[in-house]
Amino acid sequence: MSMTDDEKRAAQDHDSLYAKRKEIYPREVHGVFARWRVIMVMLTLGIYYILPWINWGVGRQAVLFDIPNRKFNIFALTLWPQDLIYLSAVLIISALALFLFTAVGGRLWCGYSCPQTVWTEVFLWIERKVEGSRPKQIKLAKMPWNTEKLMKKGGKHVVWVLFSLWTGFTFVGYFTPIRELLAQVPGWDMGPWETFWIFFYGFATYGNAGWLREQVCIYMCPYARFQSVMFDDNTLIISYDEGRGEPRGGRKRGEDKPADKGDCIDCGLCVQACPTGIDIREGLQYQCIACAACIDACDEVMDKMDYDPGLVRYTTLNEMSGKGLDIFRPRVFVYAGILVAVTLLMLWSLFTRIPLSVDITRDRNVLYREADSGDLENVFSMKIMNQDAYTHTYIVTMEGLDGAVIETDNPEITVNSGEVIELPIRVRASGDLIKERSTSITLSATSKDNPELTDSEDARFIAPADWF
């Protein structure tokens, strides 16, 4: 008995290492969750494309990761390599937030905020504007190459490429002042790294959102693989109500529901709307990104059939089995508590952070020396790092040894933003002031124009044993 063409293709796919990709043309749907996706696309991409153009103060880009000068401008904050602890805090907060949102709502991040999802939504919107709806796209794909197909396919890719290059340009604008970068583009005066990253990031956007699409979610993204570790029976997932929908069967609109059939009319719109091409009626699958397009598609059909909505809905395994809905459970409060605590701690540290760093080291060649006047002298080296966005003039003072004086090459030292100045300091005291062989002193640097901008470090004033 000979095999059919479909059976031959199935056998070839079974024998191959990777399953042959089936082209997916997601159906455009309308509804509550579709509107939320549009809102999130506009919000996230709006922030991404607009933020580099915002200035903070005079001529200072609000958000700029200035790697050559080793400083990060984030609105009023200027962070330096010494502040990488905040990057660790941000990563911890992001991980905790991911745990919390996943425990409560499953893959909400994937469905609404993931860059792959967001940019794919934009590329799909462009595709629909150029090629038409899903049936028209399928028809165009099957059509032999002609002028119409060449114009539509070519036009779509031209728009995709231009949008991708603008995306890459914006990305580089977070690391090179974007207005300077824009002025360099017409004359092609960009540096090699700027050029590389514009094209690299643009190519990545074009490839991932235009060509790979669901393949990134299914095969490349690790989150799809380990998400189940953060799920439990009370995690919200998108699920098909099998008890209500089965046995499924077709029927006409306005026709009474057959007694031996469930609410599912087997229209297949939930499958057509899915951007990863799965059938949600087969149960929870790792390919599901929780975008809820199938919910909007099914609810629209239920409304037309005059059935109750929710045949496909956000629910939990416990609710589906009749145990009730229990979203706010101990693990959720634990995640939320840790997340709030770490976030507040980081914010407190940022708001109380002093953008000045002082480091004191002793002259290692001579612990002490006797001056011509008979006074005892200790020599130190003070490093002053101005971590503020503006230039400051600092005054050096000392506490802890009453009557002692400090001598510097310059009593008022001006330090530019991000600059580190090393200043030699001599602390001199007469014999009658020194009571101990080792006396604790504190050396400070205070901004002349802002007394609250001050930092200090402890040191020891050493005297010889036979001084007493």
Structure characterization notes:
With 468 residues, this protein is an alpha+beta fold. The chain has three domains: 12-53 and 106-229, no CATH class; 232-320, no CATH class; 356-467, Immunoglobulins (Immunoglobulin-like, Sandwich). Helix content is 42%, strand content 18%. The chain is built from 16 helices and 14 strands. The chain has helices at residues 5-15, 32-50, 84-105, 108-113, 115-131, 134-142, 147-172, 178-184, 192-212, 214-220, 223-226, 242-245, 269-273, 293-304, 317-320, 330-351; strands spanning 63-66, 71-74, 77-79, 237-240, 312-315, 356-362, 369-370, 376-386, 392-399, 405-408, 412-415, 420-429, 438-447, 454-462. Strands 6, 7, 8, 10 and 12 form a five-stranded antiparallel beta sheet that branches. Strands 11-9-13-14 form a four-stranded antiparallel beta sheet, with no helix packed on it. A three-stranded antiparallel beta sheet has the order 1-2-3, with no helix packed on it. A hairpin with a 4-residue loop joins strand 1 (63-66) and strand 2. Helix 3 (84-105) packs antiparallel against helix 16 (330-351), helix 5 runs antiparallel to helix 7 and helix 7 packs across helix 9 (192-212).
